[in-house]
């Protein structure tokens, strides 16, 4: 069985063999690798090595464009090995191969984008008075910790790691226990390209290893992507040491379909927004808000479309793959069972057993209707291919429903009326709003993050570089040379 080592201080490190954790392929249930469960000492060692590497002149003397060139070279490497890396992600997460391919390309784009940005992160000068030059300089924050979830491992690792390296920081990544493989591939490539200690990879159980990292007094920033409860725990730990956090948390995002929408476009948009990665996407369109007068025809067509969605193992590259693991599968099948008893299921609602893949974690894509807007099915993240339908009659009602959860990550608006689209976009509480599309093809360049409990701060785009820099104001007094 392949044992995935951690990368600490430039060395490949295995933990205690007694505590190895299995990594499974969700499509087959097979164990495909094992990882170490890092100890407190491993974390201490990584932070110590990062501090030494960050303070050492070597890394400081890398020119900004040299950091950028390395990241761009990495993007080329990833593209050259895209098929191999896609298979790795597909087996690790269970997602259909073409969705894994899109993730690999997105990762290459992040390295390329932030590589290009590395020497364009500029400070400012501020006019004060004659004889005083006031410069605002952007410096790296220092040791940045990146805690990554299992649903888009390479994309989420790449987006924050690329920005942190571009700005000259030291990076420690803690990958999710279920999906460490592509982060290990990143570590393999970066290991001998960067000074040791500048990029490190730690593996292990989040609830054990996570707090060692987040409560460490010598780290300087945490980027956490994951669930709200874990995000709160991370923020509390960071607060003890006054360490800043960027939190990318969950969502229960609405797709709001008005009667004047282009129906074909809206229908396909709604399907894709919930089916992608089997609904295990922070920005999944998990609620459909549908205008009353088109409800019957829209839901009937939607149900027909759901019934022909092909579900299969990642490598067979169908529209939808399995859920990640047994825990998710047990949670979601129990919830669907109850929804069935309560009479909410329009279509789907059952677990799926696929011949030859009996140990995979498959469920039917599901539509729920008749749910009260305050019911947990309409309020909480399910993180599966489950779409909850809610109905509205007026624009104001649509807005109130859209804003009725604790989340505020993304919203989709489907309307051909320019007034409706703009007005609703201005009233919806969400970090990203899409009109007559959902996701804008990934949008590496677009700021991404949440209103309300969906998070703090923004990732992606140029603005994310600010997460990994701190501002220093330098005021320089000067005088004519003959007055010295
Ligand atoms: P999770 O919160 O369980 O775990 C996320 C990461 O945190 C994992 O690496 C885990 O090992 C680690 N972790 C667990 N306990 C920890 C602790 N006490 N301290 C520090 N780290 C700890 O989330 P998940 O189940 O892996 O991912 C799904 C969640 O992530 C969903 O809520 C989803 O919406 C969210 N998500 C958000 C975004 C975004 O960009 N906003 C992207 C993807 C996923």
From TrEMBL:
Pfam families attached to this UniProt entry: Aldedh (PF00171)
Q: Where does the record place the Aldehyde dehydrogenase domain?
A: 12-474
Q: Name the species this protein comes from.
A: Lysinibacillus capsici
PANTHER family hit by this protein: ALDEHYDE DEHYDROGENASE-RELATED (PTHR11699)
Q: Entry's InterPro entries?
A: Ald_DH/histidinol_DH, Ald_DH_C, Ald_DH_CS_GLU, Ald_DH_N, Aldehyde_DH_dom
Active site residues per record = 248
Q: What is the similarity comment for this entry?
A: Belongs to the aldehyde dehydrogenase family.
What is the name of this protein?
Aldehyde dehydrogenase family protein
Q: What Gene3D superfamilies does this protein's entry cite?
A: Aldehyde Dehydrogenase, Chain A, domain 1, Aldehyde Dehydrogenase, Chain A, domain 2
- Give the UniProt keywords, A-Z: Oxidoreductase
């Amino acid at each position: 069985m392949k044992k995935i080592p951690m990368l600490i201080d430039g060395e490949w490190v295995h933990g205690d063999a007694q505590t190895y954790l299995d990594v499974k392929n969700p499509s087959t249930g097979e164990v495909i690798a094992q990882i170490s469960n890092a100890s407190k000492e491993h974390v201490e060692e990584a932070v110590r090595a990062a501090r030494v590497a960050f303070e050492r002149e070597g890394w400081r003397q890398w020119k900004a464009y040299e950091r950028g060139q390395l990241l761009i070279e990495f993007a080329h490497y990833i593209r050259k090995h895209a098929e191999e890396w896609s298979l790795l992600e597909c087996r690790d997460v269970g997602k259909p191969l073409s969705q894994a391919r899109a993730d690999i390309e997105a990762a290459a784009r992040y390295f390329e984008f932030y590589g290009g940005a590395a020497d364009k992160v500029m400070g400012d000068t501020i006019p004060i008075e004659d004889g005083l030059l006031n410069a605002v300089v952007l410096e790296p924050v220092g040791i940045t910790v990146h805690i990554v979830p299992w649903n888009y491992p390479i994309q989420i690792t790449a987006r924050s790691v690329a920005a942190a390296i571009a700005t000259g920081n030291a990076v420690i990544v803690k990958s999710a226990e279920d999906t460490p493989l592509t982060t290990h591939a990143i570590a393999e490539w970066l290991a001998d390209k960067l000074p040791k200690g500048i990029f490190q990879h730690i593996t292990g159980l989040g609830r054990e290893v996570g707090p060692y990292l987040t409560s460490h007094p010598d780290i300087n920033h945490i980027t956490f992507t994951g669930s709200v409860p874990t995000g709160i725990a991370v923020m509390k730990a960071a607060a003890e040491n006054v360490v800043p956090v960027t939190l990318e948390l969950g969502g229960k995002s609405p797709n709001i379909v008005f009667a004047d929408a282009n129906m074909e476009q809206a229908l396909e948009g709604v399907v894709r927004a919930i089916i992608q990665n089997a609904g295990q996407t922070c920005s999944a369109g998990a609620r459909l808000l549908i205008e009353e007068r088109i409800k019957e025809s829209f839901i009937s067509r939607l149900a027909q479309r759901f019934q022909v969605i092909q579900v299969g193992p990642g490598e067979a590259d169908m529209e939808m793959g399995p859920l990640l693991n047994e825990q998710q599968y047990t949670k979601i099948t129990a919830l669907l069972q109850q929804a069935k008893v309560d009479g909410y299921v329009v279509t789907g609602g059952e677990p799926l057993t696929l011949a030859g893949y009996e140990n995979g974690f498959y469920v039917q894509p599901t539509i729920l209707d008749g749910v009260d807007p305050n019911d947990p099915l309409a309020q909480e993240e399910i993180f599966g291919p489950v779409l909850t339908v809610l109905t509205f009659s007026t624009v104001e009602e649509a807005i109130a429903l859209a804003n009725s959860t604790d989340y505020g990550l993304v919203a989709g608006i489907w309307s051909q009326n320019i007034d409706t689209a703009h007005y609703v976009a201005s009233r919806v509480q969400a970090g990203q709003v899409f009109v007559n599309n959902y996701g804008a093809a990934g949008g590496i360049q677009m700021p991404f993050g949440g209103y309300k409990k969906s998070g703090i701060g923004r990732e992606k785009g140029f603005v994310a570089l600010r997460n990994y820099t701190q501002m220093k104001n330098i005021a320089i007094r000067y005088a004519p040379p003959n007055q010295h």
